[in-house]
Write a structure and sequence with these properties.
Number of strands: 13
Order of helices and strands: HHEEEEHEEEEEEEHEE
CATH topology of the largest domain: Chitinase A, domain 3
Shape: elongated
Radius of gyration: 31 Å
Largest sheet: 6 strands, antiparallel
Strand content: 25-35%
Number of domains: 2
Structural class: mainly beta
CATH class of the largest domain: Alpha Beta
CATH architecture of the largest domain: Roll
Length: 296
Amino acid sequence: MKAMLQLIVAAACAATLVACGGGDKTPVEVVVAQPAYKLTETKVGTGDLVAAAGDTVTIKYNGYLYDAAATANGNRGAKVISTYDSNLTFTYTVGVGAGSFTPSTGAGAFGVGVGAGWDQSLIGMRAGGNRTAILPANLAYGANTRDAVTVNGITYPAITANSPMVFDFEMVSISKAVYIPTTPPPTVTTITEVTVGTGATATAGKAVTVRYTGWLYDGTRSNFKGTQFDTNTSFGFTVGTGVVAGFSTGVTGMQAGGKRTVIIPASEGYGTAGSSSGAVPANTAMVFDIELLTVQ
């Protein structure tokens, strides 16, 4: 009987080597099934600039653990990171040290740096656009881990090693790293007729009232409108006096109810001095949208 019991114990040890002290005790690495990289454009942005490597971008995002079973929810599992929840934005340079960037404050207080998949997912976006990216671990946080963390009173679950992720991105703004050749401003005031009015015509010496918005000229933009520096819903002046020469030129010939876009070179604007308020720098062209309200 004793011999039989020894045989049974030996057999049990053979089946459970670690428990009985024999065989290989090396733990087996858990292999996490990884999804394929997938990028979906959910909203096309309308901004003039397109994000490229080296650009500094400001984004908002939600990050989720990938859940293969949650197909109805775009494979979004538990939310583990978010700027929306804290009403924050996140700014970084695309393709420059992105994989190791680990901020400690603000939207980066989650303690895990952005992955290479962010660069791949954000390139080509325009401001105002939205994309959803499914990232295998090698494009997300790789072997990095993060414990559960509480940010602004919200507790997010842990991120384990080799976790695939799902990110919803919103592009807020783009700052180009590389100088873009500009379209130089015109040398004389140019006028684009947007709406032809039907009322009285503005001519030199006439008292007129206009509604306008003014931007600094930006030759990198398709509409040439850079930083807005002024706007007025009811501005009165006499054509030919009281305003820069290009503004009078832009209004001359308009009929009440009409709208124009006017580009004024510096020589017919504030010249080498710039505006007294400092809003328009020296040697800077301007773009105005003008609506003629009244002519007297």
